Amino acid sequence: MFTLLLLACRPSVPLSEVPIEGGTAEQRADVRTGLLAFDEAAGSGRVTLRTIRIGQLDGYAGSYDHFYRRIDLDEDTTNFTFVLRHELCHALVEAEELLDPVPAVIAEARDGLFSSVRNPNGSGGYDTEDFETETVANFCESGPSGAASAASVIDGGPLDADPELRRRLGAWLLDEIWQGQPPLPPLLLDPADVIASEAATTELRPTEDPSVVADLFDGRTFDLYTGAAVAADLPAVGSEESVAPGLAGAYYDDDGGSRVGIAGGTSAFIVTWDLYHLGSLSAFLANPGDGWRLVGDGSAHLPRTVFTADGEVWTSWMEDGTVLWTSLPGR
Ligand SMILES: [Zn+2]
Questions:
Q1: 2-139: which CATH number, 1.10.10, 3.10.590, 1.10.1740, 3.40.50?
Q2: Residue 55 CA to ligand 1 centre (angstroms)
Q3: Is the N or the C terminus of the chain less surrounded, counting Cβ atoms within 10 Å?
Q4: What is the bridge-based pairing of β-strands 212-215 and 204-206?
Q5: What is the pLDDT of residues 16-46, one digit of tens each?
Q6: Could you write out the three-class secondary structure of 144-159?
């Protein structure tokens, strides 16, 4: 009872000031970073808490207690900021009564989520009365860029199961949760700058010669700026990979060709957002140095890769047996 009174008396404070107890110094620093990022993307001061505790939880990664204004995080969780974002979304839903009444788009997403094989109930055992807040928190996990991608991308690829509901859900998350996140502006490519060649795959990579790229598949080499085959015996080397931050919640293909960037310049990222029963959404994003944008309409459905060459970021894709590539404009 004494503990309860103490907790109840401790004030609920902005996320920048919430005491973080337990865990390692590194974990506490990760949590603080996640708190500040949430405040920036949702709008400062919308969620206040009394405390965050890192410790041993019994079979779940995190929880939010609205009575105590407290988040608990499991110390063994591998993706800390992901779980934290999920719990902060619960806190915001409660603080602003965003589900009273339940919006139609959330009810529609709930019905699919809790009747599908991807039902998150399988691991957590949620009560029926929590279905709506879990629906919001599960989609909210993808963060502000995930919601902005979900709201905007036209063709999310072969696993994009319900693009129409996905767009409405993304728009709701942007409106109600991520009020500090603008919709992702497009980065437009000039068709006049597109270079074509007969390479076997889209897997182009830089070589030691800045103006020559190699086909990773068959080793043939091409002039970066004309597409002409060149007789250079140069092996492919790796792209630069200095990628701007800010796409928390995204997954990518670790095998290369989906995440590159020049330090202080443009970054490009072919990302995948996990959307539970709505499948997954692929989006093509680039950051020319002033924030992430959707490249074109953001669609990443064509076989596509990104690479660096001659101090710039490039993308290549295949159309009708021809490989095409173009640079992504910088600032
Ligand atoms: Zn939850």
A1: 1.10.10
A2: 17
A3: N
A4: antiparallel
A5: 999 999 999 999 999 999 999 999 999 999 9
A6: HHHHHHHHHCCCCCCC
pLDDT single digits (tens) 169-179: 999 999 999 99
pTM of the model: 0.89
Of 279, 317, 274, the C-alpha closest to 295 is: 317
Distance from residue 20's CA to the centre of ligand 1 (Å) = 20
Domain boundaries, the chain: 2-139, 186-327
Could you tell me what percentage of the chain is helix, strand and coil, using 3-state DSSP and rounding each to the nearest 5?
30, 25, 45
Distance 124 CA to ligand 1 centre (A): 9
> What tens digit of pLDDT does each residue of 41-79 get?
999 999 999 999 999 998 889 999 999 999 999 999 888
Measure 86 CA to ligand 1 centroid, in angstroms.
Answer: 6
For residue 6, pLDDT beyond 60:
no
